[in-house]
Design goal:
It contains six helices and no strands. The protein has 136 residues and is mainly alpha-helical.
């Protein structure tokens, strides 16, 4: 999936997929450094809220509506952290499943956006492109 989005040469899906890939590697690094899903981790919480901020900025600056789904799914991920902080007795399996689940719909949205954008370009449809920056 990553390869398809990367080689599609579409700007918006590439920004989104690189955000997810970077967050995945940072999450792996956090887990290797000692963070666990047995207790609410402030490091993982901060990382997920950072990803939420990146997706939100991306959605607000984008010309596509599909980008609005990404911060919505990420907000659900962040709310699982809030729930774990509020109720520490939540089982760790439920907490980790809630963390992992919402990444899959995000990846599907990004993949479908890349497929649509690439097929629209091949068909000669007008796909919004990034605005050119003016130099002063």
């Amino acid at each position: 999936m990553f390869a398809y989005v990367e080689f599609s040469k579409e700007r918006e899906p590439r920004i989104a997929i690189w955000t997810l890939v970077t967050a995945s590697f940072l999450t792996l690094g956090a887990l290797l450094s000692g963070a666990t899903f047995y207790v609410a981790s402030s490091l993982l919480t901060a990382l997920d809220f950072l990803v939420l901020a990146v997706f939100l900025i991306h959605a607000l600056r984008s010309r596509y509506y599909w980008t609005l789904c990404l911060p919505a799914f990420q907000l659900l991920t962040c709310l699982t952290h809030v729930a774990k902080f509020a109720a520490p007795d939540i089982m760790s399996q439920v907490y980790s499943a809630g963390q992992a689940f919402w990444a899959y719909p995000q990846m599907l949205v990004i993949l479908f956006a890349a497929i649509w954008s690439r097929s629209a370009r091949r068909a000669g449809m007008a796909v919004p492109v990034a605005r050119a920056r003016r130099r002063k």
